[in-house]
Every structure is written in structure tokens, then in C-alpha cells.
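To assess whether ligand presence alters the predicted conformation, the chain was also submitted together with 3,4-dihydroxyphenylalanine. Input:
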Amino acid sequence: MTSVDANVSVVDELVGQLAELRREGEAAVGGASSAQELESLRVEYLGRKGRLTSILRRLGELGPGERPAVGAEANRVKDALSALLDERAAGFAAGADAGPRVDLTLPGRHRWKGGVHPVTQVVDEICEIFRDLGFTRVGGPEVETTEYNFTKLNTPLDHPAADMHDTFYLADGIVLRTHTSPVQARVMEAFKPPIRVVVPGTVYRRDPFDASHAPGFEQLEGLAVDEGITFADFKATITAFVHRFFGGAVPVRFRPSFFPFTEPSAEVDVRCQICGGSGCPACKHTGWMEIMGSGMVHPNVFTACGYDPERYTGYAFGMGPGRIAMQRYGVTDIRMWYEDDMRFLGQFT
Ligand code: DAH
């Protein structure tokens, strides 16, 4: 009886020690911070002279019927600790939690930030200046009828501009607008004078995609109509705009030109922004840069839109914000605006 009792208590004791060994071992292995530390824990717990071995040495104190159960428990503890040691050792080998291997001197990763396209920035800036001069920003359709794109603008369909070579026809009488000028007619038909609008938007032409042409590009139209508007109002308004947009008292000149929808017509030039007037390839050595077509609205346009040309006068202008942005930033290839190359466009945000 006594020996049985004594053995039962030894069994309990050894099983208790095994459980404690497992608990401590798991905690120690889980908290190890290097591969070397893991190795010394392996020796301490599972080595030939380790803690598990010293428990197993006491198996001899047990009877033959009691040994297998305690031995099996000892094996489970050994397998569990050994698996955990292997797992953590593999983690260190892969560098998964290798501690201070982070290079704190590396620059941080920048968050990608969107921005407004440089041509759109120019459009917004132009519209803001004209807003201060009393102009409202409006839009119009990119798919137009030949009537609005040409006919109402005093441009007969046999005019070269209406030719298939210059215009994208979508169907008979339906085109991708070749300019923003048709919005002049749409605004005049929708509203009574006085009118002061600016109309930014994309226009389309069957042009090659090369350094100075794109088949789709931005335009910005302007229109002012009222009783008594004169060429002097036109010159003063455009000059005020140019001075505000290009800065200071930059020289401006009005050159006679021709457009079917204006009479008289003028092209507006500003002092070349790149060479300052001395002549360079960008201004073709003239010292001037053309920034817009313009003129006094042709009476036939008023008539086509239901305005009395005896009562109303006005001026109109059309510019290319893409070209103006090129001049401003010294960009020599218009395709740069349209290639979506963030290394280039990112410089303007
Ligand atoms: N629509 C013309 C073009 O695309 C530009 C233009 C010229 C617009 C004179 C105007 C204007 O309003 O008066 O080339």
C-alpha cells in the first residue's frame, strides 16, 4: 500500500513538473529575441543534461505499469517545445522578426498626391481674370451640328475649314466641334444681351499628333455683346487681361487678320515670354507670340442668332490655353500635355 501511495504521488509530481516545464519553456521560447537565445533554451530544456532529461531520470522510481503514461506525457512536452523552437528559429532565419534591421535613415515613402493639370490651371486662371472683368464661365457640347459649328458663324459649308480634311464628321451634319465658337451662338440664342461669357472646352481637328498639333486640344472662347460696345472696349479688355495674366505692362499688339465670324478681325500678340523680344526659335525670331484670334462680332452672326445687328455690337475672341501654357513654361512639344507622364506633369502640382 505504502509503495503504491508513494508512486502515485511521484507520478503526480512528475506530471506536474512536466506541465510546468512546458509552460515555462513555451514562455521562454516565445519571448526569445535571437537565434542564439533559442539555441541555449534548446540546450537548457531539451539537452542531454537539460531539464527534461532530469525529470525523465526519475522514471526509474515508478513501477513498470506507471512509466508509459508519464513517458508519453514527457514525449508530448518534448515534441511541443521542439516544434516551437524550430518554428521560431525558422522565423529568425527568414529575418521575419529580426529586430533592428530597419534602416531609419531611409527617406519616407511619399503619399501620391493628385493635382490639377497644368493646362486646366491656365484655363482656371484665365477664367478667374475674366470673372473679375464681369464674364461668366459657361460650357457647350463637344458633339455639334455643322449649323452651329459653321453656318451660324457666317462660315458656309464650302469653306475650307468645313472640309473633311480638317473636321471629324460623326454623321451627316454632325461633327466634333472644331472650335468653341459655336457656343457663342448657343449663348446668344439662350440669353438676351448684355452678354459676357468665357467658354473653355476641348475641340477636335483632323491634325497630325506632332510637336505643335494635337487632334484634341483646349480652347477658350470669349464673347461680349451689348448696345454700344466698340473696338476700344475690346482692346482695353484684352489688354487688361494680358497684363494680368502675363504680368506688368507686357507689350501687346493687335494685328489685322480674318475670321468669317468677326469684322474687323485681329490676332493678338504679346512680347515673347521666352526671349523677351530679342528673337528665339519659340517665337520664330519675331519677338512676338500669338495668343488669340479675335474681332468684332460679324453682323451676319447676330442675324443668324436672332439679335438685331443694328442695335447690338460686341467682340469675341478665342485662345488656346495649351499653347499659352507651353509659352509660359517653355514647353516645346504639345504632346507633353497629353501623355500623362507623371514625371512631367508632377512638376506643375
Ligand atoms: N474659332 C477660331 C479658331 O478656332 C478662334 C477665334 C477667332 C475665335 C476669332 C473667336 C474669334 O471668337 O473672334 O481658330
